[in-house]
Amino acid sequence: MGLKELLMNLPEVKKPEEKRLSFNVKLKWTLIVLAAFFVLANIPLYGLAENSLAQFEYLALIMGTEFGSVTSLGIGPIVMASIILQLLVGSGILGIDMKTPDGKRYFQGLQKLLAIFFCIFEATVYVAMGGLAAMPGLGWLLILQLFIGGILIMFMDEVITKWGFGSGVSLFIAAGVGWHVFAAAFGFLDSQMQIATVGKVWVLLKAISAADTINAASAAAAIFATVLIFLIVVWAQAIKVEIPLSFGRIRGFGMRWPLSFFYTSNIPVILTASLLASMQLAAKLLENIAGGPTFLGGFSQGVPVSGLAAFLSSPQILESIIRGSFQTAFIWQALVYVIFMIAGSIMFAAFWVKTSGMDASNQAQQILASGLQIPGFRRDPRVLESILSRYIMPLTVMGGAAVGLLAATADLLGAIGRGTAILLAVMIVYKLYEEIAKQHAYDMHPALKKIMKID
């Protein structure tokens, strides 16, 4: 059996026979997978002696995981496979025609095979390099549990993509971030499970009652930054370019085809943030092996303090100003971080459009297949493609740059749960809301199915 045949026949979640599932079916599978994810995240690894990665709370949020549990690998293997393939296909090194069904299936099979490889690779690296140290003689068992957890996450993501709302990758990130933000804002238990004023809201109230201006200002700034980022993202999500379309078979009826300003949604910042998270994990694991800091960076209590990891991390500018610890070096560090987030988001946005069927050619075919056309123009995919291309690539670049800048700014302001994580969660939830609302509209108005040729 050749490689192509192997990729075409990898185990996969069966697609539903219906072209469009009902709202109740999608909701059922989404809730089932979400519940399974939380259950797996609370199952500790058997044979785990030490978990030096437990202090990387931010990395755990971005990777949709809980270090020390069965889901310790999180979405890492899926995202790494996606990043590598997008770079190879987008740069032309790997020639795959994403406009054909066979090309898309070949790409998906290659991505799944690569994700399985990274499940094995990352599980082995975590255990061998001391990030998740095993008890004597139980290293192989720890690797096996991590591998199984990674495979389960991969198939759970596939279930959500085919049977639920959104994607599993986005859902796992949103669930983890949502829980963390709630705990960080209203938590009342410390790491020793003792009652304490841990949440920012309780810290603010306590500081105000004690006339502690510094702690009150710090907590208030974090809460304000979180609310501000939430409002900006919700506002920016509503910015759209709407292209007027008409139904060729029904005179007098039309609609507008929306192209969002964040055309690729949260995908670019997920990939960019995951790349940074993977870099910091690699730096920490290398430090464990070398017994000290390496060129990738050194850490103190989970915070990068030297090397490339520190240079590409986000200094909390607002927090340092309030506490009087601001340094001039923070400005250069913040500038490098912002540039990296913007450049990475633009690059991944462009690659994502090419590999996910969101380019002008595929959008034109989708519009024509729905029985729609632009008023005053003939039903020719080349004409429609030329019109769409005026908007799609500029929106891809500007939206990618904007989402990268917004994520970096949120981190610099020190929002609760880290700004990038907040940004991801809000965008994911908003996108999920739009998808649920659209699904509800189809279920409530069956006539739309006939107009849009949906069985």
Describe the structure.
The strands form three sheets. Strands 4-3-7 form a three-stranded antiparallel β-sheet. A two-stranded antiparallel sheet has the order 1-2. It is 64% helix and 7% strand. The chain is globular, with a radius of gyration of 23 Å. By secondary structure, the protein is mostly helical.
What's a quick, concise take on this entry?
By secondary structure, this protein is mostly helical. Helices cover 64% and strands 7% of the residues. The protein has one domain (3-451): Orthogonal Bundle (Preprotein translocase SecY subunit), CATH 1.10.3370.10.
Question: What's the helix and strand layout?
Answer:
Elements: H1 3-8, H2 23-41, E1 48-51, H3 57-62, H4 76-90, H5 101-128, E2 132-134, H6 139-163, H7 168-186, H8 200-209, H9 213-237, E3 240-247, E4 254-260, H10 267-290, E5 298-300, E6 303-306, H11 307-311, H12 317-322, H13 329-355, H14 360-369, E7 372-373, H15 381-413, H16 419-444, H17 447-451
Antiparallel strand pairs: 1-2, 3-4, 3-7, 5-6
Helix pairs in contact: 2-6, 4-5, 4-10, 4-13, 5-6, 7-16, 8-9, 9-16, 10-13, 13-15, 14-15, 15-16
